[in-house]
Amino acid sequence: FLMERKTRVKINRKEIMVAKLRKTCSCTPQKLKNFLMDFFPVLRWLPKYRCKEYIWGDIMSGLVIGIILVPQAIAYSLLAGLKPIYSLYTSFFANIIYFLMGTSRHVSVGIFSLISLMVGQVVDRELLLAGFDLNDDAPPASGDGSLQNDNLSNTTAFNLTIAGINAECGKECYAIGIATALTFMAGVYQVLMGIFRLGFVSMYLSESVLDGFATGASLTILTAQVKYLIGIKIPRSQGHGMLVITWINIFRNISQANLCDVITSAICIVVLVTAKEIGDRYKHKLKFPLPTELVVIVVATLVSHYGKLNEVYASSVSGAIPTGFIPPKVPEFNLMLRVALDALPLAIVSFVFTVSLSEMFAKKYAYTIRANQEMFAVGFCNIIPSFFHSFATSAALAKTLVKTSTGCQTQISGVISAMVVLLVLLFLAPLFYSLQKCVLACIIIVSLRGALRKFRDVPARYCVNKVDTLVWVVTMSASALVSTEIGLLVGIVFSMLCIIVRTQRPRTALLGQIQDTSFYEDDLEYENLSTVPKVKIFRFEAPLYYANRNYFLKSLYRLTNLDPNLEAARRKKYEKKEKQHLKKGNHKTANGLGIGETTLQLVPKQIDFQALVVDCSSISFLDTTGVNTLKEILKDYKNLNISVLLACCNPSVIDSLKRGGYFGKDFGCMQEMLFYSIHNAVLFAKDQK
């Protein structure tokens, strides 16, 4: 039987487009209000804020995150190749803007190690191209930590005339100029992706690609911090193979290690790791995480200051961190052109991490987010702060987990965290003058524990899916050994190639009948299946398209033990020889048989079936090549008096077959060629003469 298809109502796309344009271009007070409330979600949820229920959890989580943010911001400035003050600016503005525009109640948006690394690599490259020495570590200026003193101390002797930058601009000025231009472009990309609804791009970043990218980048971050751990001065490697070159330079200069920095690093790592392990083990008993990083920074700063570690042991310190805000400045347009390509992967990675974390915690706490609005939020978290000497931001998993564990209910906690950072910016920043850089490196390295632990998951990942494990290994290796951007691109391309290869060579099988049922399964996978006499049932577990057409035919011929083209050619050759013998008047055939016996030779012994049933349940679509392939086997097997029956086709496959003329012009033979179950096709084949 044939099921009757519903008639589709023809859609006038022109009228729909005109209606949408009218609706979009119209402006009413209600529509303007809805637009503002959608663009600034805080206007929707803040009036409904349950103060008595939420306020203490938000204050506690905000204070804890603020305390964590300060040492992390100062530490991650090493990754970005910028001064600590710019990291503090970034943390402050990102929290405020996401409070206004974000739809997630729990994610912590701000400075993130992977994003800082990607920014730092671009900054280092442009500084080298501009003629600056990346190892030009001037001695820290002594002073009151004001902005004026800091600017004077960081002005170098280089005269810049490139990219339209003022000739008086020194190394620090040029570095933050590159970072803000890069951040602005990344934000523009994210906003454009939101306008054109290109959030689907994130679907091409699978979990294996993201995990591999994060682990590979973590190895790069770890490598970049080793020189601060042991206090040696080596050239900052740039370009491909940075990880290998850096380790070679480390071992060449290991004899120059600063003993003071080595001892300090060892003590800090032991303290930080021990505190983290204790916190993880007893986290269900602790009301809030231990502020270990802050304690380590305070104690290390006091020891460095009163022990005069910089003067006596030449230990590298952070130097003067200014207070207050630098006047805003528009990012340089010429620099934007230089970093436009670098901003694209930065924008995608920043958006993907933010949206994936937002969706994860929204699902956990039973509310919804708007992915498109998240793209706008993270975009403006980059665009607006770029005018205030900040660099790119993203959501961070570690801080988000801390946020939720300390009672966070809404993004009010982000405002509290911003206030803590503001307090440091206005009053406390100069107190970190004597903080050793090796302490900051320890904080960065210990924060990578989660990403580096992914190596322990490789055996379990391999047991679950070998292809995903291979994608993880390739992405991780490319990110670590080549570069982070190339690693991300390699991971995306390789994962897509794996999908293509899997559809090019999918599983194929001949099916047998489960005894006393109307169901059929793979004869090689299951025991006690019975073969259907005179019928072959073939399953192809992938879409049928141009890339796997040949594999489809080869598998079909191999499993059925019959190539219809070769058989047809053999028969033609045999018939030709028979005609030649008959013309000569020889009543014996070429095989020495009588004429009456020749018909037996036309049907070889291996053809033990009269019907071929193709199980199309796993064929999700057909392209033109796929339709032509099915038409080809229909014709070839028909020449051998073998009927081809299709079973379990979905509507899109049926439509493709109709358009391709598989069922003929008037579809008259359709009910004899198409069946809605394998069993129906088998019963029909058995009834055939």
UniProtKB/TrEMBL annotation:
Compartments reported by the entry: Apical cell membrane
Claim: Transmembrane helix is one of the keywords in the record: yes
Gene that this polypeptide is encoded by: Slc26a1
Keyword Transmembrane helix: yes
Entry protein name: Sulfate transporter
Transmembrane segments: 54-76, 96-119, 173-192, 212-230, 335-355, 376-398, 410-428, 472-501
Catalytic activity line of the entry: nitrate(in) + chloride(out) = nitrate(out) + chloride(in); iodide(in) + chloride(out) = iodide(out) + chloride(in); sulfate(out) + 2 chloride(in) = sulfate(in) + 2 chloride(out); bromide(in) + chloride(out) = bromide(out) + chloride(in)
PROSITE patterns, per database record: SLC26A (PS01130), STAS (PS50801)
Pfam name, any one: Sulfate_transp
Domain STAS: 525-685
Family in the record: Belongs to the SLC26A/SulP transporter (TC 2.A.53) family.
One GO cellular component term: apical plasma membrane
Annotated CDD domains: STAS_SulP_like_sulfate_transporter (cd07042)
